[in-house]
Design a protein that fits this description.
Blueprint: H1 28-32, H2 36-50, E1 52-53, E2 73-76, E3 91-92, E4 97-100, H3 108-119, H4 123-146, E5 152-156, H5 161-164, H6 167-190, E6 196-202, H7 207-225, H8 227-232, E7 235-239, H9 245-254, E8 258-261, H10 270-291, E9 297-300, H11 302-306, H12 308-314, E10 318-321, H13 323-343
Parallel strand pairs: 2-10, 4-5, 5-6, 6-7, 7-8, 8-9, 9-10
Antiparallel strand pairs: 1-3
Length: 353
């Protein structure tokens, strides 16, 4: 059995709900927040999800408890945000911060190097440029691990359409990214830091493709940090909303967690993007639950935040949310949690410990 694939003892029979997107659901947070009881529940929700005391065990894993509703997590999507200083030791977030590594390539100095590297046709010169990119990525990874986001980060490997058109360049850049990230982790560990870094393989289209990406990540981790770290490294899949549903289920069997990325469709108007994303999420989640009922499945991107009510209802584990949308998303999640408690629902839900 390959790493990440676990025997499931849960009942695979999951009730598939009829899905209907309603724009009225998007306003539930504002409507319900007027209630004093909901305001109290929201305060409790925000206090619980923001930070939690830890016993220092950083080997937490991703799973859900079938038949028991876990808190719906509203986590940080680090896109376009500056990292903040760490809190006092011993306090950890409820889940990771999503870091998209290709965003580091947008930094002015890295952007210039990346452009030169992509256009370079001489192998020796390209290798020298890639080495300079590595050092910049190493510095960026170090800054991440020293920040609050570095306490628990889920880093998606770089992926762009331009890179996808050149598989050799894509593999070389991802290799440099992993080397830089794991070198920063090694230095952080040497200094006694408790940073945790999980990895996301970007947009696999099949189980075989994800298995190859996973093997690649584990190989670099073992070379850099040793077998023990590679064996413990949590590796998930960043899925596009249009992923084949059967493929999503098969990928879930060997992935530690899944993130359905709405950022791939953000060019559409908000309303249309949210409706289409919620429909896709329901289909993907149903396929995943049939294959692996205990899988942790989260969503990311602006469409996920706008479709939060639907994602909560179908049993998603949570969303990664940008700063601009996080306050509204937190309030909406708090209200939905309060309603669920009042109704004493027993629907299956997401979350992890």
């Amino acid at each position: 059995m390959m790493k990440g694939e676990r025997q499931q003892n849960d009942d695979p029979n999951q009730e598939e709900r009829l899905f209907k997107y309603s724009t009225g659901d998007r306003t539930i947070g504002m409507e319900m927040s007027q209630s004093a009881s909901v305001a109290s529940a929201a305060a409790e929700f925000l206090a619980e999800r923001d930070q939690r005391k830890s016993n220092g065990n950083m080997s937490r894993t991703y799973f859900r408890r079938p038949g028991e509703r876990q808190p719906f997590l509203v986590l940080r999507d680090g896109r376009g945000e500056r990292s903040t200083p760490r809190e006092e030791p011993g306090i950890y977030p409820a889940g990771p911060c999503l870091i998209r590594a290709e965003e580091w390539l947008l930094e002015p100095e890295l952007a210039a190097l990346y452009s030169s590297w992509m256009s370079c046709t001489e192998d020796g010169q390209a290798e020298r440029i890639l080495q300079r990119i590595y050092h910049r990525l190493r510095a960026a990874a170090g800054v991440l691990l020293e920040s609050a986001d570095g306490v628990w980060a889920a880093v998606a490997l770089p992926y762009t359409p331009e890179l996808a058109a050149s598989p050799a360049r894509l593999a070389a850049l991802q290799d440099a990214q992993l080397d830089a990230l794991f070198a920063a982790v090694a230095e952080s560990q040497r200094l006694g830091s408790d940073s945790r870094v999980d990895l996301l393989a970007p947009y696999p289209a099949s189980r075989a493709e994800f298995a190859a990406q996973r093997e690649f990540i584990e190989g670099v981790a073992e070379q850099t940090l040793g077998h023990a770290y590679a064996a413990a490294c949590r590796i998930g899949a960043l899925l596009a909303p249009d992923v084949e549903r059967a493929a999503a289920g098969e990928i879930a069997r060997i992935a530690d967690f899944l993130v359905l990325d709405g950022a791939a469709g953000e060019a559409a108007p908000e309303e249309n993007a949210a409706e289409g994303f919620a429909t896709a999420a329901a289909e993907v989640l149903a396929a995943v639950r049939r294959a692996r009922p205990a899988a942790a499945v989260l969503a990311a991107g602006a469409p996920a935040a706008y479709a939060l009510a639907d994602l909560y209802e179908i049993g998603m584990s949570g969303i990664f949310c940008s700063a601009a949308l996080r306050t509204e998303a937190l309030l909406r999640a708090a209200c939905l949690t309060w309603i669920a408690r009042q109704d004493n629902t027993d629907a299956a839900a997401g979350g992890w410990q």
